[in-house]
């Protein structure tokens, strides 16, 4: 960036202002049709760098479809998806990961027959080389970097002390934490989480919420969360986007969403959340 003292003093040209206001992810008029069913209907949202954004809505509102469109597991019927200012609709899923988007799934997606460390190392290798490809002539120092990244990831999710355990032997909550760790090992700019606390006990849920908070504070990670637990959504979100019947019906802070009549009607027939 130019240090010319005569340069315009536009606030958006400063590093801090640029970072705080930068749009990391944007969808423009996103439509996904399955035959005669419209799963997402003209969805336009944006996510700023460093934000914690939750996407909520009744069952069938289009939440998971939207996430799968962003990660390129589904093709949009119409519309565009921009990440870091570049359209990604022509990219393959692994290219999106390389670009900086990771996803944790609705159920734990791990390699159960491998150890916890091996799971993290595979994710780190994928982040380093792409498509899980591997060059066996790679310098040993590169392998050391991958191992260190895997260790750091497991430490971040509280599983380093179980690194040599078989992944299938972990309690369910720890499997979900490992799955989040696998997503983090790609060192993403944006983490998409699809119901990360589904099936967890209250204790496991709280531990996962604490983990999300720690990741946000320590890594400055931007994330988009799909979650049914409104207590979690209201406690950790900077902003909430509400979908119903495929379209956005409300968007705002937790306080604004809690008192929005359209949201109350969509969820509980007008009963306050």
From TrEMBL:
Residues 1-18 have a biased composition (Low complexity). GO terms for cellular component: plasma membrane. The keyword ATP-binding applies. It comes from the Archaea. The keyword Nucleotide-binding applies. GO terms for molecular function: ATP binding; ATP hydrolysis activity. Residues 1-23 are annotated as: Disordered. Belongs to the ABC transporter superfamily. This is Probable branched-chain amino acid transport ATP-binding protein LivG.
